[in-house]
Each structure stands twice: as C-alpha cells, then as structure tokens.
Write a structure and sequence with these properties.
Layout (H helix, E strand, L loop, with lengths): L2 E4 L5 H5 L9 H14 L1 H12 L10 H10 L2 H19 L6 E6 L2 E9 L2 E5 L8 H14 L3 E6 L9 H10 L3 E4 L2 H10 L9 E3 L4 H10 L4 E2 L7 E6 L5 H12 L6 E6 L2 H14 L6 H11 L1 E4 L3 H11 L3 E5 L15 E4 L5 H6 L25 E9 L1 H5 L2 H10 L3 H8 L4
Helix pairs in contact: 2-3, 2-8, 2-9, 4-7, 5-6, 5-7, 6-7, 8-9, 10-11, 16-17
C-alpha cells in the first residue's frame, strides 16, 4: 500500500528520497562495448542470440519487412499514428531556430549558423514493452532539424522480427534505416559503427539500465540526449480532485517499471486517504499489476502539504519528469513551477495524453535533472557554429586592445598576432 506522509512531520529524507537502481552494470557494459568495437557485426550477431535468442544473418530491416509490418497493423492504428505525427510535427516546428548575421559596424560581419547533425541514432526499446510512440517522439524532431540520415536500432524477437507497430511508426516518421539490435551492443554500434550499422553523431531514446550505462560510456565519442532513470509522475491535486482519476494517473507511470515513481502531493488529507484506497481497487485490475504493485508499494508516496503553493514548492524540489496540476485555474500556478520535465494542466489532461497524441515531446529529464535540463527537442539535433569577419581598417581600430588584453593573460603570441597586421 502506498505510504502517506504529512509534510513537516517526517524527515525530509523520506519526502525527497529517490529510487536508486541497485544493479551494477558498468563492467558488463564495458565488455560489450569493447567486443563491438573489436568484432563489429560479429559481436552484434552474438549478442542478438545471447540476449534475444535471435539467430540472424542480416541486421538491416528490409523494405519488404517494413511493408509487411504496415500491412499487418490495423488501419485505425495507422490513422492514429498519422494524427499523432501531425501534432508532434506542429509543436516541434515552432522550435526551429534561424541563423543570424550582425553587420551594423563598417568592416565587421559576425554571425551564427544553425547546422543539422549529419546522422542521428534512435534507440527504441522492444523488450517488456514496445513503444511506437517513442519512434515518433525521437524521429520527428530529427527530421524537422534536417538531419541527413536518421538511423534506428531496436531489438528483434526470437524469430528475428521487429514489432510491426514499431516499424509502422518508423515508416510514418520517415526513419531512413532500421537495424535489428538492442541493448548496450546497439548503443556501441551507433557510437563506433560496424560493417552494417553506421556511426552516428548523437544517440537519443530511452532504455534499460544497460542502455543507460552504455550511453554514459560512449558520451564524448558521440553526443547523447540524457541518462534516463526510472519513469516518474508527480501530481499536485486539491480537495476537489477525483480520487479515481488521480489514482489512475499515478498508475499510468507505475505500470512502466518496478522502479517507477508515482507521487501525489495534496492539501487534502481526505483526498490522500481516498486515493490510497482507490489504488488498492485499481491495481488488481491491471494487466501489469505485479509491476504496478511493486512501484506503488516501494517507491510511491502521498505527501500532505498545508496548501497548493507549498505542494508546488515540494514539486519543484523533486523536479519530476511528469507533473500534473489537478487544480482549478492551473494557469494561475504555471509561473510558480520551475522544475519539471513536462507539465499537464488541469483536471482533463492526463499524462498519457502527452505520451501519445498531444504533441509536446515525451522524452523527458528524470531523477531531478529537470532542474537543469530539458525535454528532447529540435535543438538536440542541431549544432551552432559562429563566424567573424573584419576588414584591415576595422581590425586596426581594435588590435591594440586585443594585444593589451592578451598580455594580461601572459599570451604574447596572441598579442603579436593582432598587432603584426598593422605594420
């Protein structure tokens, strides 16, 4: 049963404690990455058989396999994929930045170029749950950014097949190449390249502890989006909130993973008790009840605060991945929220709406990193470079200042490179 704490009456360690995965995977992942760097495709075939029990002779998903998958998927689901893709595109198109030029002083031109990454790599889970929504959320911003190639990796089943819903989503999102490989070995392949899998500039997408550790270890060779931890939801709810709806929203994240975190912060002791009881009614009805039960019992909590503003203060300290504001007039509180991956406003905006259809991205910072990082966006798939141009006349007006500054740092070659052009 979920625990209820009254803020101010229990140690803050209980209020703000986070789930820390106990598995030590660093050495295992090091060995996998080393094998992929050394043996290329051979290592990928080996690990496909070892971890996914799939004996393959080719890693690239063929056009025929994609067409067959699209044909298998219900037309209704394809329609929903298209609708979700349209919403995601509409939202992310607004994130595009333009290059700029400054030319307001004679003889001086400065500017910044916004340049798409050449190749983006998408990791899409395919184990205990397959997420076609992740394909849309990761691929569409990359395509909008203008990446020349978008490459996807995802684990096959025992028959060497990819989930048809994932392939259908990749088709809708315009993914260029898809490879049948998952786990840390897929991350290594994207980072270093193999005979089949091309090396990419950035790897994005969620995964298990091995995938997260692999992304951490290859960072520097390639860029990554984030080190994702277990899923999180925090709901700020007042006394008017419907306990059945609140419980359902908490469980929408609890069913992800036994390590997922579901938290309610409320100003109502009555709502806290009602939600606690309602969770016990709803958990046995879930297909993934074992996972949800472990998440709620071990990591879930209900915090009773003195008022909604204090509840938001608590939410800011936790900095959750998903934050629901189940209150009247939620826009009155929006400015008070400083740290959250994505905010869901009002009583009719369940977090699941953002997972699938609304448009904002669902690849979000976890584990408190919303205090300093952002959701996946078009910005993740571009880089910026800057340029400077001075005529000789323009340089002559500032060269002595440059040289004087350089000497204060003890860099006389810097100084000379500026003034030598004046003679």
């Amino acid at each position: 049963m979920i625990k209820i704490y009254k803020y101010g009456e229990v140690p803050k360690e209980k209020i703000f404690a986070r789930v820390v995965p106990a598995m030590d995977v660093e050495r295992i992942v090091e060995d996998i990455i080393a094998a992929v760097r050394r043996d290329g495709d051979k290592a990928l075939f080996f690990y496909n058989e070892k971890f996914d029990r799939a004996k393959l002779t080719a890693l690239l998903v063929s056009r025929q396999e994609i067409d067959e998958a699209v044909a298998l998927v219900e037309p209704e689901f394809l329609r929903i994929l298209q609708r979700a893709a349209a919403n995601i595109t509409k939202f992310h198109e607004k994130q595009k930045h333009n290059s700029f030029t400054i030319n307001d002083e004679e003889g001086i031109v400065m500017g910044q170029k916004v340049i798409p990454l050449d190749r983006a790599g998408l990791y899409v889970p395919g184990g205990t749950a397959a997420y076609p929504s992740t394909v849309l959320m990761d691929a569409i911003p990359a395509k909008i950014a203008g990446c020349r190639e978008v490459v996807m990796v995802t684990p096959p089943n025992e028959l060497g097949k990819i989930n048809p819903y994932i392939l259908a989503a990749a088709h809708v999102a315009g993914v260029d190449k898809i490879f049948k490989v998952g786990g840390a070995q897929a991350v290594a392949a994207l980072a270093y390249g193999t005979e089949s899998v091309p090396a990419v500039d950035k790897i994005v997408g969620p995964g298990n502890a091995f995938v997260a550790e692999a992304k951490k270890q290859v960072y520097g060779k390639v860029s990554i989006d984030m080190i994702a931890g277990p899923s999180e939801i925090l709901i700020v709810a007042d006394a008017k909130s419907n306990p059945k709806q609140v419980a359902a929203d908490l469980l929408s994240q609890a069913e992800h993973d036994k390590l997922a975190s579901a938290v309610l912060v409320t100003d109502s002791g009555e709502l806290a008790l009602a939600v606690q009881q309602e969770l016990e009614v709803q958990i046995p009805r879930l297909e993934r009840q074992e996972i949800a039960r472990a998440s709620i019992d071990n990591n879930g909590k209900i915090i009773v605060a003195e008022d909604i503003m204090k509840a938001i203060d608590i939410a800011n300290e936790i900095a959750p991945e998903h934050l629901e504001l189940c209150v009247d007039n939620p826009f009155d509180y929006l400015d008070a929220v400083r740290h959250a991956g994505s905010i869901f406003m009002g009583r009719n905006c369940p977090e699941a709406l953002g997972d699938y259809l609304a448009g904002p991205n669902h690849t979000l910072p976890t584990s408190g990193t919303a205090k300093f990082s952002s959701p996946l966006s078009v910005d993740d798939f571009v880089k910026k470079t800057q340029y400077t141009y001075f005529t000789k006349s323009a340089l002559s007006k500032v060269a002595e200042d440059v040289a004087f500054f350089a000497t204060k740092e003890g860099l006389t070659a810097h100084a000379r490179s500026a003034v030598i052009r004046l003679s």
